[in-house]
Amino acid sequence: MSEVVGKPVLWTDDSAVCEPLAHGEQVAAHFHDFGQLRYAASGALVTATRAGTWVAPTSRITWVPPFHVHSSRSYGQTDVRLLRVPAELAERLPAEPSVFVASALLRETYLALLSDREPVDSPRTSLLLEVVVSELARARREPLRLPEPSDTRLKAVTDLLHADPANPATLAELGRRTGSSERTLSRLFGSELSMSFHQWRTLLRIQRALLELGEGASVTDTAMRLGWANPSSFIDAFTDLIGQTPGRYRATARAAHDRRRRGGLAESASGDDAADQST
């Protein structure tokens, strides 16, 4: 989850993945000459770039600007809906990858675009795309980016934590395992990642918690499995970062999953048209 996979290549035709991605399935590093929006109608999509890692569970939309190298990994059975954004519209969105909360209007307009069989340059398609971009421009951006280091000393530490987010080791203990001093590592966290060791590990754990809660894990089990001393400290950290309690987030994710199973969003018709979008 921490690295861009493989040598990046330019994908110019939107060939590719319209079938649901299996749990853990990866899409190799690549980039586009257009912007791309990525919405997981089910499951969760992790997007990795050299600048960091973004987690987008259901009800979130990931934005990848033109020419940003990115790779992907799915969590759970993930049905990804991808939307191309022309360069002239991409200029109105952030210059760096971002994750947005998808309002009801944004989500339904987005899905309508992908299920619409009209030409991509039709007036209706242009109008719907304008609505999507306008809604994104005012949508709340979530602080879900986990920055990744380039310094090999720091990367040795973050790799250990990626492998086991619940690892309770102090920075000094991790430094002894990787051959660096606590002082050096603390300085590198601040200078390279602009956050403390504690902040980085907490964000990593919150990212993993989003994935587990979205799959239906309980709040208590998630807290214990990811290394919090008790559920209350997990609830406080999650709420501070995400803006809602983990219990409410879990309930919202499960309700959306149930609606899809009952056909409430009627999304299945969009599969053929999604085939011309690439991850």
Describe this structure in words.
The chain has helices at residues 87-90, 104-115, 123-138, 152-163, 171-178, 182-193, 197-214, 219-225, 231-242, 246-261, 271-274, and strands at 9-10, 26-31, 35-49, 52-57, 60-64, 70-85, 98-101. With 279 residues, the chain is α+β, with helices and mostly antiparallel strands. The protein folds into two domains: 9-145, Jelly Rolls, CATH 2.60.120.10; 152-256, Arc Repressor Mutant, subunit A, CATH 1.10.10.60. Strands 1, 2, 3, 4, 5, 6 and 7 form a seven-stranded mixed β-sheet that branches. The model is unreliable at 1-6 and 264-279 (pLDDT under 50).
Question: How do the helices and strands line up, and which of them pair or pack?
Answer:
Layout: E1 9-10, E2 26-31, E3 35-49, E4 52-57, E5 60-64, E6 70-85, H1 87-90, E7 98-101, H2 104-115, H3 123-138, H4 152-163, H5 171-178, H6 182-193, H7 197-214, H8 219-225, H9 231-242, H10 246-261, H11 271-274
Parallel strand pairs: 1-2
Antiparallel strand pairs: 2-6, 3-4, 3-5, 3-6, 5-7
Helix pairs in contact: 2-3, 4-5, 5-6, 7-10, 8-9
Q: Strand fraction band?
A: 15-25%
Helix fraction, binned, reads 40-55%
> What is the CATH superfamily classification of the largest domain?
Jelly Rolls
Radius of gyration equals 19 Å
Report the CATH C-level class of the largest domain: Mainly Beta
What is the residue-averaged pLDDT? 83
Q: Biggest sheet, open or closed, and with what strands and sense?
A: 7 strands, mixed
GO molecular function: DNA-binding transcription factor activity; sequence-specific DNA binding
Protein name: AraC-type DNA-binding protein
Pfam family, one: AraC_binding
Keywords: DNA-binding, Transcription, Transcription regulation
